[in-house]
Design goal:
This protein is 43% helix and 15% strand. It is of the alpha/beta class. It has a single domain (5-245), classed as TIM Barrel (Alpha-Beta Barrel), CATH 3.20.20. The protein has an 8-stranded parallel β-barrel with strand order 1-2-3-4-5-6-7-8, surrounded by 5 helices. Helix 1 (16-28) runs parallel beside helix 12 (238-246). It binds phosphoenolpyruvate.
Length: 248
């Protein structure tokens, strides 16, 4: 039985005070012993949120990580730096990074490796655009995005990661994939990994992301290959985020 996991992605939102209030409100809604709940906050607030949530079940993640260990890479944040700020998770390859900031399958794979070197769990975000879905290339896109990481890191590394299937057409659009559409791709991802290692496929958590809300979370999370969610908009409201968490 895989542990379920719900992760919030705050993106480029909120002030320091708002972030701290949100983190505190989420942590207050948890009970000791709760597991599998994470917030991915803007880099500059990581340390503040780290202090605010220490001794609570809420865990911390970043929204990206550098593809290099250190050196002359102005503006980048390394996995070691994130570790110091208390990050247990790092998103890699979010579709907004891929489409607006040029993250490629190769650089995403390098970010994945950097995170794992520091003991940070990379959350590999993969998913097709609407155009790709309509041209029936969803599985080919998944093959390329997942394949680049397996080629660089090896299938065994997937066990110590999380995969987030996020159809690009469902992110922030209010259009959610149907439970069946999501399950179909999750099953495909798990089978793809199982072809190389059944043990890894059985263990890896695969999250769904794309307009998850309190009203649709339960049905999505009930699918056999969906182990939780990566939540954008609805993670900015503590009550909504906690309701989604309680739907796992
Ligand atoms: C996301 O940013 O990963 C996401 C799933 O956003 P939203 O929930 O707002 O669609």
């Amino acid at each position: 039985m895989r542990q379920s996991l719900v992760m919030g992605n705050w993106k480029l939102n909120g002030s320091r005070a708002e972030g701290l209030a949100l983190a505190n409100a989420i942590a207050t809604g948890l009970r000791p012993g709760n597991k599998g709940i994470v917030v991915c906050v803007p880099y500059v607030y990581l340390s503040d949120v780290q202090d605010a949530i220490k001794d609570t079940p809420l865990a911390l993640g970043s929204q990206n990580v550098a593809d290099q260990e250190s050196g002359a890479y102005t503006g980048e944040i390394s996995a070691a730096m994130l570790k110091e700020c208390g990050c247990a998770y790092a998103l890699v390859g979010h579709s907004e990074r891929r489409s607006y900031y040029g993250d490629t399958n190769e650089s995403v794979a390098a970010r994945f490796v950097q995170a794992q070197k520091e003991g940070i769990t990379p959350v590999l975000c993969i998913g097709e655009t609407l155009e790709e879905r309509e041209s029936d290339t969803t599985f080919a896109v998944i093959d390329e995005q997942l394949g680049a990481v397996i080629d660089l890191a090896g299938v065994e590394a997937i066990e110590f990661s999380v995969i987030a299937y996020e159809p690009v057409w469902a992110i922030g659009t209010g259009k959610v994939a149907s439970d069946q559409q999501a399950q179909e791709v999750h099953k495909y991802i798990r089978e793809k990994i199982a072809a190389k290692s059944q043990a890894v496929a059985d263990k890896v958590q695969i999250l769904y992301g794309g307009s998850v809300k309190p009203s649709n979370a339960k049905a999505i999370f009930a699918m056999p290959d969906i182990d939780g969610g990566l939540i954008g908009g609805a993670s900015l409201d503590a009550e909504s985020f906690l309701t989604i968490y309680q739907s796992t």
